[in-house]
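ok so for the tutorial part 2 we go from a plain amino acid sequence to predicted structure tokens. step 1 is just haveing the sequence, like this:
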Amino acid sequence: MRCMYCHGEMKRSTAPFQIDRKGVHVRLDEVPAWVCTQCGEFYFEEREVDSMQDLVKTVEEQTQKFAQTA
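step 2 — the prediction. this is what the tokens look like for a chain of 70 residues:
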């Protein structure tokens, strides 16, 4: 697998993921990813993306519950 930007070699490693949405901040320091050995660009596989989306959705749902009780 080659990097889309610099065409360097991609290796399995980890990469950070961070999202700020609706007053919620989610940060994961080490998500499995393909990382370019040349430029550091990273790509997450579908499995990891699905898990991150599920996590964000759950956090948003729980945050809405807090807002309703306030």
